[in-house]
Design goal:
Pfam families: DUF4838. The protein is mainly alpha-helical. It contains 17 helices and 7 strands. The chain folds into 2 domains: about 200 residues, no CATH class; about 150 residues, no CATH class. β5, α6 and β6 form a beta-alpha-beta unit. Bound molecules: zinc ion.
Length: about 450
């Protein structure tokens, strides 16, 4: 379903050049991420007290299951610092700067008295913003226990290196800002990582997310935007420039020291404005989104206005489709980052494409006589054709419908594959990302279901 091997290699180098030209990278090596993934296997026997207490039992609730830590435990905190001091080849008197204290990829679950004693009061409107089916729906609000623990770990590490910086994530049931008025200071870095709340959002939800950033900024911690927003949308024209730039610019002027975006899924022809903003805002966070997007549209020469109308159409479509997105994904058991293609035909049915095609037809007329602009408009057309073929294939192959079968969707799949083979080097989409999503979304014959991990950077 993805690129041929040779095209995949060329694509990756083209993408690397794009990232380099957009100055993506980092000067300071930083190691962080879920820190305790293997700890139960390594230390559970000797130190069960370092691990979550759930229903009276320490450690994972089922064998090999995920687990969170007993983050209040003094021995655990000492061990985190001790391992940091021994990390890598740095001599003990010059340990590396970053102490990784990012909780595992699971809600903070410890029920012990010491952990609970560190919790702050739950914000009054908190539950209004927690999706009813999310992993954290039934979980307590535990941001303050983590904030206080990161602070304590930083104080231990500072005995060995006054510049030590502890990294934690605002995530899951410790995403919302703490409520005890704690001051963390700049030697604690918080990776701001909403585990849900993709775009588009309601006005209230957008405000609430920005309030959480503001609340963490008020702890005086250093904030890192570590969001998953760009894993959303598959190869569909899912455009969210307005809410994304609003959130990014609020954050960038308020405590942001860096960004770490989950992914570049690479749907250049259908999501160009999203990607362009994502890159340019990091270099020019003070420039208005409309100016940045004007720059993008100007690349279409005499068709700039038509292309703007085209993407404005899709942004309005996205913004107005919030409940359809929620309801459809819930009904089909689809995931916004892993199995979007289960729902593509419901969110983007056949008839949704016609007005957008007409807008691109106008762009073709306007671009006539300008070869470069014509080629670029054609690039958008190919992206839209590809999205439509994906929607058609999804309607017959979705795992959300028990009637789906390879036989039923064979013709649509064949048409999609032929299109991809013909146009793969146009780079309209990272086809390996498409294949990865489709492998969890569609009923596919064994060989086609085998897809390469796109290795998003
Ligand atoms: Zn505990």
């Amino acid at each position: 379903m993805g690129f041929t091997a040779a095209a995949a290699e060329e694509y990756m180098s083209a993408q690397a050049a794009f990232l380099r030209r957009n100055r993506m990278g980092r000067r300071i090596p930083a190691n962080y991420g879920h820190a305790f993934v293997n700890w139960w296997q390594q230390y559970g026997g000797e130190h069960p007290e370092w691990f979550q207490l759930v229903n009276g039992k320490r450690g994972p609730s089922r064998p090999w299951g995920r687990f969170s830590m007993c983050i209040s435990n003094p021995g655990l905190r000492e061990e985190i610092v001790s391992q940091w001091r021994q990390h890598g080849s740095a001599p003990l008197e010059h340990p590396p700067i970053f102490v990784n204290a990012v909780e595992n990829d699971i809600p903070g679950q410890c029920e012990c008295d010491a952990c609970k004693a560190l919790d702050g009061p739950e914000p009054p409107n908190y539950r209004e913003f927690i999706p009813s089916k999310s992993k954290i729906a039934g979980k307590p609000f535990v941001s303050d226990r983590y904030a206080r623990s990161w602070q304590a770990i930083q104080q231990i590490a500072a005995k060995y290196n006054s510049n030590a910086v502890v990294v934690g994530y605002a995530y899951m049931n410790y995403f919302a800002a703490p409520t005890t008025g704690i001051k963390l200071g700049s030697n604690v870095i918080i990776g701001f990582c909403p585990s849900s709340w993709f775009y588009p959002r309601s006005h209230e939800e957008q405000g609430w997310i920005k309030d959480q950033w503001q609340g963490w900024a008020e702890t005086d911690a250093s904030l890192l935007m570590r969001t998953n927003y760009f894993l959303d949308g598959y190869c569909m024209p899912h455009i969210f420039t307005g809410q994304f730039s609003d959130e990014f610019q609020k954050a960038s002027s308020n405590g942001m020291i860096g960004t770490d975006f989950d992914s570049l899924t690479g749907h250049w022809a259908t999501q160009g404005p999203n990607i362009y903003l994502l890159m340019r805002l990091q270099i020019h966070p003070d420039v208005s989104a409309s100016s940045i997007l004007s720059e993008y549209y100007s690349a279409f020469g005499p068709a700039a206005d038509d292309v703007k109308k085209y993407f404005d159409f899709w942004e309005a479509y996205t913004s107005n489709g919030r409940s359809r997105l929620h309801d459809t994904f819930e009904a089909l058991g689809a995931s916004r980052w892993r199995s979007w293609a289960k729902a593509a035909h419901v969110i983007y049915p056949e008839e949704s494409f016609a007005p957008a095609e007409a807008l691109l037809d106008s762009a073709v007329s306007s671009a006539k006589g300008d070869q470069e602009a014509s080629m670029r408009v054609n690039f958008l057309q190919l992206g839209l054709q590809h999205a439509k073929l994906c929607s058609q294939a999804a309607s017959k192959l979705t795992l959300g419908d028990p009637e789906s079968s390879y036989e039923r969707g064979g013709a649509e799949l064949q048409a999609l594959l032929e299109f991809r083979r013909t146009h793969e080097r146009m780079w309209i989409s990272n086809l390996n990302h498409c294949a990865w999503v489709e492998s969890s979304s569609w009923t596919l014959p064994g060989a086609a279901a085998q897809s390469q991990d796109p290795g998003p950077e």
